[in-house]
Amino acid sequence: MHARIAMMGLLPVISAMLPTLTQTSHVGCFAQDTVSTSQASFRVVTDIFLGTEKKPAQQTLTLFSSGVAYDISFDDPNQITMVDPQRDRIVLLDKTTKTRALIGLKELNQFIESARKQAETSELAIYLKGAEKIDVADNVVSVGDSVLKYRSTLQQPRDEQMAVQYASAADALILLNGWRSGMPPFARLGFNRVVAEQKSLPHEITRTAGSGNHTDVVRCLLHANWRLSSDDEKLIAEIGNMLTSYQSVPAAQFFADQSKAAKVKFADKSNTQKK
């Protein structure tokens, strides 16, 4: 997955326009709405490239097992995001602090639906209109316009249910990213839905964002393996132990601790480079 890169750094934060997340019923028609009890096990490695760079800026491993997705960054393997649609939750795990935080998917969906309504009468309306522009042809999916567009070739999974599982996890991660960054995820949610409707996974996604004379391009290459390895199974078992042994903390504290750790890591790196 690739939620860690802020994918839409173009607009004022919509989070300032909205209330704090509250417990509400599920609203919305996202790919995760179609998750069934029939689940498959597989893995996806995602390489994320910025512009014309040949070396990935980020790499992630996402494991799917028993209806749960485990998203792990190669850049910081101490941070794990667990997406559990059947229990309507995202669980964040930090191996360094041995803490965990829970965020409700229903709350995130309500947040985005509120953002959608706000966007209809604001400068963000252009992103809603762009998200309605969909094209599917010759094994290629395109969602968006010149302001923001997602385009991807497709790959066929061993089991059609894998497409639904992948889209469900991708929805949850982009919802989380949208909540934290305040950036509108409408086009990406639409893209996830359309790809799932093709009973496929993305293969090579290109996201193009235009602002004035400037264009940002992010490319994601997905390497799927339709079975888990024994090491994958061991890692999932380890994460299961983390769920029971790690201390539960509020999400705000979890993110604050992450931010502090990132600042320390950046400072240490800068000092090392100066030497």
Which secondary structure elements does this structure contain, and how are they paired or packed?
Layout: E1 42-50, E2 58-65, E3 68-73, E4 79-84, E5 89-94, E6 99-104, H1 105-119, H2 125-131, E7 134-137, E8 140-144, E9 148-155, H3 160-181, H4 186-197, E10 201-211, E11 214-225, H5 230-245, E12 247-248, H6 251-274
Parallel strand pairs: 6-12
Antiparallel strand pairs: 1-2, 1-11, 2-3, 3-4, 4-5, 5-6, 7-8, 8-9, 9-10, 10-11
Characterization of this structure:
The chain is an alpha+beta fold. It is built from 6 helices and 12 strands. A 12-stranded mixed sheet has the order 7-8-9-10-11-1-2-3-4-5-6-12, sandwiched between helices. Helix 3 runs antiparallel to helix 4. The radius of gyration is 18 Å and the shape is globular. The N terminus is likely disordered.
List keywords for this structure.
275 residues, 35% helix, disordered N terminus, alpha+beta, twelve-stranded mixed beta sheet
Strands ordered across the widest β-sheet: 7-8-9-10-11-1-2-3-4-5-6-12
Q: Main beta sheet, described?
A: 12 strands, mixed
Shape: globular
User: Share of helix among residues?
Assistant: 25-40%
Report the β-strand fraction as a percent range: 25-35%
Radius of gyration: 18 Å
Distance between the amino and carboxyl termini: 35 Å
Number of helices: 6
Briefly characterize the structure:
The protein is 35% helix and 30% strand. The chain has helices spanning 105-119, 125-131, 160-181, 186-197, 230-245, 251-274, and strands spanning 42-50, 58-65, 68-73, 79-84, 89-94, 99-104, 134-137, 140-144, 148-155, 201-211, 214-225, 247-248.
